[in-house]
Amino acid sequence: MSATATETSRVVDQERAEAFAERLVGVLNDGALAVMISVGHRTGLFDQMADGLARDSHALADRAGLNERYVREWLAAMLAGGVVEHAGGGAFRLPPEHARWLTRAVSPDNIAVTCQFIPMLGQVEDAVIECFRNGGGVPYEQHPRFHAVMEEDSAQTVVAALEDAILPLVPGLTRRLDEGIDVLDLGCGRGRALLLMAQSHPASRFTGIDLSADAVAHATERASAAGLSNLRFIAADLSGFDNDAEPEAYDLVTAFDAVHDQAHPLALLRGVRRSLRPGGVFLMQDVAASSEIHENADHPLGALLYAVSTMHCMTVSLAQGGEGLGTMWGIQRAQALLQEAGFPSVSVERLEHDMFNAYFVARP
Predict the structure, then answer these.
(1) Which residue has the higher pLDDT, 141 or 124?
(2) Whole-prediction pTM value?
(3) What's the pLDDT score for residue 147?
(4) Which of 119, 132, 263, 318 has the fewest CB atoms within 10 Å, counting from its CB?
């Protein structure tokens, strides 16, 4: 390469460089703000401000039962981030338009719940960096609060719409649940979806399986407290589910945002096929994305979902010696694996309330 060509290749578009620097400054501010929004959610501060009344840090701290000095600094971060408004003196208020997306009582779509992923993923950064260098993965038990955060997240996307929108994707399913069928939920976590179904359809029998013994213990305690005798939870590794699944034991199998985490997703799906009775159906929720990376460049949550994949979904699979399929495995690959597992009939549905997930209805 000539000297002239080398010099040309090093020419920097200064305007483009400065624009990217400004974007990075925005990333720093927004990343820090996400952490502080998570704090506001977990401490209940947003909920205490949901009425829109102006309060100073002392009044808000008393109302929330928190330390005033920390509340004061948090309010400063919220003001700098444009989340709260200065109401004069030392008082601040949360506008109702902002409370719509940040509070438990007001918001059916609480984005503060999702902000919890940012500090949660940061807790495993050191361990994931070691995996970058040496391979392997970070197991579930090293991800603090994962199931607690996922429970809140799924409460908004799955549980809130389960009876009215998700189950009706399968014609006649609600009627069959009322009459009494056997249902299995794989990767059930803390079991919120199954708890709702067991309460709503007492004639049916429900089983949830998850790798996390802590999550299963939590779900079992809730089922017992609710007096549900038609619901049980099992802690088990699903890596060999293609061989371990009880043949023709269930009429409905569900998996909500769980298949891509598995060590061996195809084995899981083959086990689902094995476990279904004639006329049974598999209902799966997973991220609505493309299997081609470049087609996700404009995905509205692409960076977040690939980060979640790197720091959790992919690495927990690799920790089990699995394939590390990743969060963004995509609709095309999901359809291909379902068909390979023995589901020739697969429909992909979208729901108005859930712009980030696809729902797969698969029949043998």
Answers:
(1) 124
(2) 0.91
(3) 85
(4) 132
Question: Which residues lie closer than 8 Å to 258 by C-beta, 6 or more apart?
Answer: 186, 187, 188, 189
Segments in 205-352 forming alpha helices (H):
213-225, 241-244, 265-275, 302-308, 314-319, 331-340
**b/e for 316-350, b at 16 or more Cβ within 10 A?**
bbbbbebbbbbbbbbbebbbebbeebebeebebee
How is 116-146 classified by DSSP, letter by letter? THHHHHHTTHHHHHHHHHH-----GGGSTTH
Rounded CA-CA distance 21/135 in Å is 32
Spatial CB neighbours of 51, under 8 Å, sequence gap ≥ 6: none
At position 177, the amino acid (one-letter code) is L
CATH number for 51: 1.10.10.10
- Give the pLDDT confidence of 300-334 residue by residue, as tens digits: 999 999 999 999 999 999 999 999 999 999 999 99
Can you read off the two tokens belonging to residue 157?
């996307």
Tell me which residue range forms the domain holding 221. 122-363
Q: Is 344 helix (H, G, I), strand (E, B) or coil?
A: coil
Spell out the residues 6+ positions from residue 244 whose beta carbon is closer than 8 angstroms to its own. Answer: 236, 238, 271
- Greatest CA separation found in the chain? 80
Sign of CA dihedral 200, 202, 205, 207: positive
Pair 353, 250 in one domain: yes
- 292 and 146 inside one domain: yes
Q: Distance between CA atoms of 239 and 235, rounded to whole angstroms?
A: 13
Torsion on CA atoms 66, 29, 50, 353, rounded to nearest 10: -130
| Token reading at 66 | 């928190």
